[in-house]
Amino acid sequence: MDAEAWDEHYAHTELVWGAPPNDTVVEQVFGLERRLPLAGGEPRPELPRALDLGCGEGRNALWLATHGWQVDAVDYSQVGIDKGRTVASRLSRSVRGRIHWHWADVNALDAAGLTGPYELILLAFVHLPADQRRALLLRAAEMLSPGGTLLVLGNDSLNLTEGYGGERNPELLFTPDDVVADLAPAGEELRIRVADRIARPTEERDAIDALIVATKPVPLEEGPELPALESTESSNS
Question: DSSP assignment, residue 24?
């Protein structure tokens, strides 16, 4: 769908995807090493930085912010962005201040001033034609800081025939192998940690998702580490 169609989709109900973050995103982010190294000479960020591409109504971006991440949340649906801001307005000022909302096309990140580096880049259910997907993934790999993680999650091609729900256009679906091949030109600059199909329970039957987690290696001469993330801050303060 284009931006106008997504605006209409998001305007239809209060929260299309619900408020809680995606379970797989939570599991993978909790599994990250919490001490993230920096490139030599780079100013130390106050918080580890995350880029949420295709953030929709912001459910994953909001969760990241409440767990100590500084987040750039990007979507080309103005309605989705506005709904994310509305939910954020109910949280503490410190959490709200960690999220920067960007009404922008994920295929034009440089034009939006989003150039990185980031310790985490998330693409959750961003379904693009193969050539656009490949270009975006390689750009994301370039924007990772050393030690940073690229997390890709979406409807697997097998979901169309053996799963449930999700994107129905086969040209926009992908497999873990597709994403691994897309990232191959990054060479030694990226290491694939996970490339699997996973089952996601739905109200009818399991959906089939593709999960790919990749990291950028840390050079041996890398500098000091970021301090460990603090414990979750209450959203009621």
Answer: H
Strands 49-53 and 207-215: unpaired
Q: Can you count the helices (H) and strands (E) in the chain?
A: 8, 7
Return the higher-pLDDT residue of 62 and 229. Answer: 62
Task: Kindly give the pairing relationship between strand 49-53 and strand 70-75.
Answer: parallel
Average pLDDT over residues 139-162: 96
Quote helix, strand, coil % in the chain, to nearest 5. 35, 25, 45
**Residue 156 carries which DSSP code?**
B
- Give residue 219's pLDDT: 83
What is the CB neighbour count within 10 angstroms for residue 187? 8
For residue 104, the tally of other CB atoms under 10 A from its CB is 18
d(CA 200, CA 209): 7
pLDDT in the model for residue 119: 94
Contact criterion met (CB below 8 Å) for 129 and 158: no
Burial of 232 (0-12, 13-18, 19+ CB in 10 A): exposed
Residue 237, pLDDT score = 37
Whether 197 has a pLDDT exceeding 70, the answer reads yes
For 84, residues 6+ apart whose C-beta sits below 8 A from its C-beta are: 55, 56, 57, 58, 61, 62, 73, 75, 99, 101
